[in-house]
Amino acid sequence: MDLFEEAKLIEPEIIKNRRALHQHPELSYEESWTSAFVAEKLHGLGVEVKTGVGGNGVVGVLKGSRKGKVVALRADMDALPVQELSDVSFRSKIEGVMHACGHDTHMAMLLGAARLLADSRDELVGTVKFLFQPAEEHGGRGGALPMIEAGAMKDPDVDYVFGLHISNSQKSGEFGVKEGAVMAAPDTFKVRIVGRGGHGSAPHETVDPVYLAAHVILALQGISSRMIDPVRPFVITVGAVHSGTKENIIPDFAHLEGTIRTLDETTRRRAKKKVKQVVAGVCKSFGASAEVEFEEDAYPVTVNDPRTTQSVIRLLKQIPGAKVRKMDAIMGGEDFSRFLHEAPGTFYFLGTKNQAKGCVHPNHSASFKVDEEVLKLGSASLALLAFEFGKR
Ligand SMILES: [Zn+2]
Ligand SMILES: [Zn+2]
């Protein structure tokens, strides 16, 4: 059976679903319309459906004609607080909310794969689980963890798990795959510098937290250049600074917010420790104190199982016309990483960058636009992985 030929036949349906989802974007933890939409579509395909799995999560189960492995395929469902500026006819109907990361296409591609698999149920070995996950963009607790806690990876227990993300930094129609660490652990932190306020004309009677915030921001970059092994990728960014009310008042406090990105647990632990040390040390030397707090539930590093991923690369190359490229790691975070802690699998990418069609703006941009021609390829790839890994 040629899955890609089958996928071409259902392309209009994939695109129709994608556009409907695109017009109704919902923010993290608010995906009720979206989850009802996918649940209804799965029902229509004869897939067993469970809703309300860890919030707005939906789990579909499709049993093949013979016993085999259990393969889970995941799509995320949430959109972003972005006012859409793209020129498509099916623009977001929700003010200030947009599917700017392409999660609408992930759902449409997975529904397409469900259709392909349901249509070929007689030839399907094993069981396929469809995981529609809320709140991927949240960045802290997220949506994968509550689904796992609600039993999404159990009964039947998942043997392999796969997820697909589209990307406008990769060429249209090209798959990007990487063994091992593919996305970073995004740890966010908050710093509260406690000084002693007073008059702007008499700094010697105060401990100035604004001045200290400047020192802290500069010193934190020294972690990157002086304290972390240069062959290990590391990013530190302070993205928010809040302090003060007026030019002649030295305030009591300054607040900073930042993020660190790492690709391995050793560097991650070391960097977190160093952030605390540097902030405390700098503040102490000027007579202030400081509190540093890291978000507790941050996403772990997304690590693709090497053996599974080598097979994925081989299989994707079998799809007619598909190009497969070994990609570099991305310093963004993904809570697909949580599913990879439960079962071996692969998180891979599909490019949608197409100059001629104006699909050039990066994911999360208000002008983000997807080359819809690649969606059938995504559906075919997900169905292929379910078919092949089910037989193992
Ligand atoms: Zn995103
Ligand atoms: Zn995303």
Short synopsis of the structure:
With 392 residues, this protein is of the alpha/beta class.
What does the model show?
This protein has about 400 residues and is α/β, with parallel strands linked by helices. It has 2 domains: about 270 residues, 3-Layer(aba) Sandwich (Aminopeptidase), CATH 3.40.630.10; about 110 residues, Alpha-Beta Plaits (2-Layer Sandwich). Strands 1-2-4-3-5-16-6-15 form an 8-stranded mixed β-sheet. Helix 1 packs across helix 10, helix 2 runs antiparallel to helix 4 and helix 6 packs antiparallel against helix 7. The protein is elongated and about 80 Å long. The relative contact order is 0.20. It binds zinc ion (ZN) (2 copies). The site of one zinc ion has 4 residues, from loops.
Keywords, separated by commas or semicolons:
single chain; 8-stranded mixed sheet; binds zinc ion; 392 residues; 4-stranded antiparallel sheet; Alpha-Beta Plaits; alpha/beta
By CATH, the topology of the largest domain is Aminopeptidase
Q: CATH superfamily assignment of the largest domain? A: Zn peptidases
Name the helix and strand elements from N-terminus to C-terminus, one letter apiece: HHHEEEHEHEEEEEHEEEHEEHEHEH
Q: Provide the list of bound ligands, each named once.
A: zinc ion
Our estimate of the beta-strand percent is 25-35%
Overall spatial form? elongated
Termini Cα gap: 18 Å
Main sheet characteristics: 8 strands, mixed
Strand order of the largest sheet: 1-2-4-3-5-16-6-15
Give the tally of structural domains: 2
What is the name of the CATH architecture of the largest domain?
3-Layer(aba) Sandwich
Count of β-strands: 16
**Number of helices, where a helix is a run of at least 4 consecutive DSSP H or I residues:** 10
Per CATH, the class of the largest domain reads Alpha Beta
Portion of residues in helices?
25-40%
Class by SSE composition: alpha/beta
Give the integer mean of the pLDDT values.
97
Low-confidence segments: none
Radius of gyration from CA coordinates: 23 Å
